[in-house]
Amino acid sequence: MNDTVISAKNLSLTFQTNDGPVHALKDVDLEINKGDFVSFIGPSGCGKTTFLRCMADLEQPTAGDITVNGVSPKAAREARAYGYVFQHAGLYPWRTIDGNIRLPLEIMGVDKAEQDAAVQEVLELVHLEGFEKKYPWQLSGGMQQRASIARALAFHADILLMDEPFGALDEIVRDHLNEQLLDLWARTNKTIGFVTHSIPEAVYLSTKIVVMSPRPGRITDVIESTLPKERPLDIRDSPEFIEIAHRVRDGLRAGHGDD
Amino acid sequence: MRNLFPILTVVAAIFALWYAGSVVLNAPWAYDKAERAGVELTTKELIADTMSQKKPKLPPPHQVGAEIWKTTGAMVAKGRAFSKRSLIYHSWITLSATLLGFALGTGFGIILSVGIVYNRSMDMSVMPWVIASQTIPILAIAPMIIVVLNAVGISGLLPKAVISMYLSFFPVVVGMVKGLRSPDHMQVDQMKTWNASRAQEFWKLRLPSSMPFLFPSLKVAMAASLVGAIVGELPTGAVAGLGARLLGGSYYGQTIQIWSALITAAVLAAALVGIIGMIQKVVLKRMGMA
């Protein structure tokens, strides 16, 4: 049941800068299992984005091991094992929503009929049916980000890596998208890695919350959520939710103890 | 209509200055003639003379206008639009070299910029040469190009186009290097997550992203091409083209002919740049980048 999808052992990444080495990650250990929804939370500079980028082969660790689907991140990337959602939707203004979602499929050489089917399928997943002929500027920020998630889902990768995807959106839109994301996760059974600044967002979404702290970037706590898989928005008022949020806050504070 | 008023004001000011300049600059010759003829000039006679000299220092607008009409519209009316005395004929000669040079320059500029963006050693080495090429006065190098190409049996249109190209590739290189590098880190990373090849990254991301940078470069390149073609006509012995009209005019002190060629060149440049501007508007609007 619990097959490991992503495994990091003693992972370290040091950037050499003019002010000396910066330890973005130091001796990080973590296992992510199939179907997990893992949030990475921590202050700026704690290495949460760097960690996610290591999984995606966008950064190269300087020490330690990391595997994705049992192989190196590079091999996993070349096998198109994951979809990556950035903070900004990054849709191409010269392509329609349909054209944007089709883009990775074109790059991967998927044939036309399969592209059509995939576009329809993911548009439905993110509730953007009927918007395929629109251009990005005709959509709201929240809708653009949903289109960008659809694009990351289009090629049926089992892993979805999301780097503060809702960070630039307002609270109300964010709540709505969080709900939709949970629904999407339940329907597709993807493994999701999710970077966030927001404690409620992390607690609401995750099965596992990874609390990180800076200088050097490291994991200070890993919290297995006891919340049920079915999560209406008002679960955030339940004592259980508040308790988990409290533990996350404590973890964040402990990491800041030396400041 | 609200835009028309300031434009007309500026045009009126230019004409007023131009007429005033004509009177002042042409007056000495008018006085000279009057003195030799032993007559006194009234102010009215003086101004009338400065407006109608055969070889004025600064021909007034109406003389230039009349000359342009005589060598364009009037020739068309007589069915001799492409006679050797027609400015239409000379404009066409220059325009053909301009357009060929512009096409060559744009192509060469884009190829160079792709090389600079994708090849590290070209990135390090080519740009200084590109800049150095533009510091050499074109008047110095144009005769060399003509002589060298003539020596290998190439004459006529191509040498002029090569000079146009020499001037016009530069803005295209500068603009396209910037344009091809305009996608941000995130967009390039995104391409990487899809395991896109460099060719795919170029065609699907970098080239479309560069369009807002390409068009302003093309406008500058087009104007430079026209200058190049005119300069290219000067050392060829002034046979045909707007450059030939300029040179011929200066040999014989035909200032009216020089000014009419100059004005024609300016109108031609404005029209060419305007066409690019229109294409820019349509393309960028369709690409959602305007």
UniProtKB/TrEMBL annotation, chain A:
<keyword id="KW-0067">ATP-binding</keyword>
<dbReference type="Pfam" id="PF00005">
    <property type="entry name" value="ABC_tran"/>
</dbReference>
<keyword id="KW-0813">Transport</keyword>
<keyword id="KW-0547">Nucleotide-binding</keyword>
<feature type="domain" description="ABC transporter">
    <location>
        <begin position="6"/>
        <end position="239"/>
    </location>
</feature>
<dbReference type="InterPro" id="IPR027417">
    <property type="entry name" value="P-loop_NTPase"/>
</dbReference>
<dbReference type="InterPro" id="IPR017871">
    <property type="entry name" value="ABC_transporter-like_CS"/>
</dbReference>
<dbReference type="InterPro" id="IPR050166">
    <property type="entry name" value="ABC_transporter_ATP-bind"/>
</dbReference>
<protein>
    <submittedName>
        <fullName>NitT/TauT family transport system ATP-binding protein</fullName>
    </submittedName>
</protein>
<dbReference type="GO" id="GO:0005524">
    <property type="term" value="F:ATP binding"/>
</dbReference>
<dbReference type="InterPro" id="IPR003593">
    <property type="entry name" value="AAA+_ATPase"/>
</dbReference>
<comment type="similarity">
    <text>Belongs to the ABC transporter superfamily.</text>
</comment>
<dbReference type="GO" id="GO:0016887">
    <property type="term" value="F:ATP hydrolysis activity"/>
</dbReference>
<dbReference type="InterPro" id="IPR003439">
    <property type="entry name" value="ABC_transporter-like_ATP-bd"/>
</dbReference>
TrEMBL record, chain B:
<feature type="domain" description="ABC transmembrane type-1">
    <location>
        <begin position="87"/>
        <end position="280"/>
    </location>
</feature>
<dbReference type="GO" id="GO:0055085">
    <property type="term" value="P:transmembrane transport"/>
</dbReference>
<feature type="transmembrane region" description="Helical">
    <location>
        <begin position="220"/>
        <end position="244"/>
    </location>
</feature>
<comment type="similarity">
    <text>Belongs to the binding-protein-dependent transport system permease family.</text>
</comment>
<keyword id="KW-1133">Transmembrane helix</keyword>
<protein>
    <submittedName>
        <fullName>NitT/TauT family transport system permease protein</fullName>
    </submittedName>
</protein>
<dbReference type="InterPro" id="IPR035906">
    <property type="entry name" value="MetI-like_sf"/>
</dbReference>
<dbReference type="InterPro" id="IPR000515">
    <property type="entry name" value="MetI-like"/>
</dbReference>
<dbReference type="Pfam" id="PF00528">
    <property type="entry name" value="BPD_transp_1"/>
</dbReference>
<dbReference type="GO" id="GO:0005886">
    <property type="term" value="C:plasma membrane"/>
</dbReference>
<keyword id="KW-0813">Transport</keyword>
<keyword id="KW-0812">Transmembrane</keyword>
<feature type="transmembrane region" description="Helical">
    <location>
        <begin position="157"/>
        <end position="177"/>
    </location>
</feature>
<keyword id="KW-0472">Membrane</keyword>
<keyword id="KW-1003">Cell membrane</keyword>
<feature type="transmembrane region" description="Helical">
    <location>
        <begin position="129"/>
        <end position="151"/>
    </location>
</feature>
<feature type="transmembrane region" description="Helical">
    <location>
        <begin position="256"/>
        <end position="279"/>
    </location>
</feature>
<feature type="transmembrane region" description="Helical">
    <location>
        <begin position="92"/>
        <end position="117"/>
    </location>
</feature>
